[in-house]
Design a protein that fits this description.
This protein is of the alpha/beta class and about 375 residues long. The chain is about 35% helix and about 10% strand. The chain contains twelve helices and eight strands. α2 packs across α3, α6 packs parallel to α7 and α9 runs parallel beside α10. The structure holds 2-acetamido-2-deoxy-beta-D-glucopyranose (NAG) (3 copies). The site of one 2-acetamido-2-deoxy-beta-D-glucopyranose (NAG) has 7 residues, from α6. Beta-glucanases participate in the metabolism of beta-glucan, the main structural component of the cell wall. Acts on lutean, pustulan and 1,6-oligo-beta-D-glucosides.
Length: about 375
């Protein structure tokens, strides 16, 4: 079976991000960084420089081999989830790496393996270009590069990103392991002040993915859903260039971190804002909330009444989770950030830990009732 563009209409996405697997983010995986010898570095690329290429390849391969296992996929399935979103860097396609760039090598084999594990369990996969050539944002370890200036927004780096997308499109359609990989996101969280992102990069990425599929004679029903950040992200609206015809086979990605939202930092306000989330601005449907968490504002997060390790606080976090789920399920669904973290008793960023703590129920059907929206 090939889950693809026609399927999202019937698949309500309930998923988790596999953050820090193929792009390590030190803030959420400090233990891993320490054990790799990279706790003093700011990004994956800096870690490679610090360790040297060969030692870095060994350290990263060990990480890819152990950080997410088949047991994780079994747990994801057992918790009622049907989707994983997998953030990757363009350096998966090693031919694209310039001599003066430094990235770990050998990741593709592990991505293939992961896709196969997901397919074996009928778990849908969203593959997300999370680390773009030249970095799509400055000083953001999620891009895999800690740079003072983002240089993604240039013709040669757009071209490299498009080559990555073409390569992955072809691999997805010609490799059995990817039979449940149905969505490809062209870039995660770009900067907001580059008009040619939409007119050039989005338009070209879309056309080139479709061109590869035409060359491969992929039936319309089996084409990939091509995903863009939504209009609410603030970097323009892909619908302006790809249209809103459902046959275009696109989907949108909303990142809804209420932790950073401009709302009063009270428990009622968080619930209200959760319930009131509206998707689809600018004709962007279907929209998946591809990143969100149950974290709260930096000013309050350490206060006793918000402390996740205090027994009496769990009920509210359950409601906060449920209110978001019930709102996001009015759209195409949701993907929590993230599955697994190394933040100790702070399960606000870890679905796995929140389930273990009894905060997130295993029966997702309970969400609407618990939300009280
Ligand atoms: C990372 O872990 C090391 C070793 O446990 C610790 O010394 C360091 O403070 C941690 N860093 C952060 C940012 O938590
Ligand atoms: C593309 O990105 C690389 C960083 O990896 C940068 O060195 C280069 O200058 C960028 N290209 C342009 C034309 O800015
Ligand atoms: C939340 O919504 C309820 C119901 O509409 C309202 O009574 C309450 O004042 C709101 N609270 C906040 C903090 O916005």
């Amino acid at each position: 079976m090939k889950l693809s563009l026609l399927v999202y209409a019937t698949l309500l996405i309930r998923g988790v991000n596999l953050g820090s697997l193929f792009i390590i983010e030190p803030w959420m995986t400090n233990d891993t960084c320490v054990s790799m010898g990279c706790d003093k570095t700011k990004s994956e690329s800096d870690c490679v420089v610090a360790l040297g290429q060969d030692a870095a390849n060994n350290a990263f391969q060990k990480h890819w081999d152990t950080y997410i296992t088949e047991q994780d996929l079994d747990d994801i399935k057992a918790y009622g989830l049907n989707t994983i979103r997998v953030p990757v860097g363009f350096w998966m396609l090693e031919d694209l790496i310039h001599d003066d760039e430094h990235f770990p090598q050998g990741g593709l084999k592990y991505l293939d393996r992961l896709a196969g594990w997901a397919a074996d369990r009928n778990i849908y996969v969203i593959l997300d270009l999370h680390g773009a050539p030249g970095a799509q944002d400055a000083k953001q370890p999620f891009t895999g590069q800690y740079v003072s200036e983002a240089t993604f927004y240039t013709p040669p780096n757009y071209t490299r990103a498009c080559k990555f997308l073409q390569f992955m499109t072809s691999r997805i359609h010609t490799t059995a392991a990817y039979r449940t990989t149905g969505m490809l996101e062209v870039v995660n969280e770009p900067q907001r002040n580059h008009p040619d992102l939409v007119s050039t990069y989005y338009a070209t990425a879309y056309a080139q993915i479709r061109a590869i599929e035409s060359k491969l004679n992929i039936l319309d029903a089996h084409r990939l859903t091509i995903q863009f950040m939504d209009k609410a992200w603030g970097a323009g609206n892909a619908a302006d260039v790809v249209g809103t015809n459902p046959k275009a086979g696109v989907a949108y990605d909303r990142h809804n971190y209420l932790k950073y939202a401009n709302i009063a930092q009270t428990k009622d306000a968080y619930i209200n804002a959760s319930c009131a989330t509206v998707l689809g601005d600018g004709g962007d449907t279907p929209t998946v909330v591809g990143e969100w968490s149950i974290a709260v504002g930096s000013k309050v997060q350490a206060q006793p009444q918000w402390d996740p390790t205090k027994e009496g606080n769990k009920e509210w976090y359950t409601r906060y989770w449920a209110a978001q789920v019930s709102a996001y399920e009015k759209g195409a669904g949701w993907v929590f950030w993230s599955w697994k973290t190394e933040l100790g008793g702070n399960w606000r960023w870890s679905y796995k830990a929140a389930v273990a703590a009894g905060v997130i129920p295993k029966d997702l059907g309970e969400a609407t009732g618990l939300a009280g929206c």
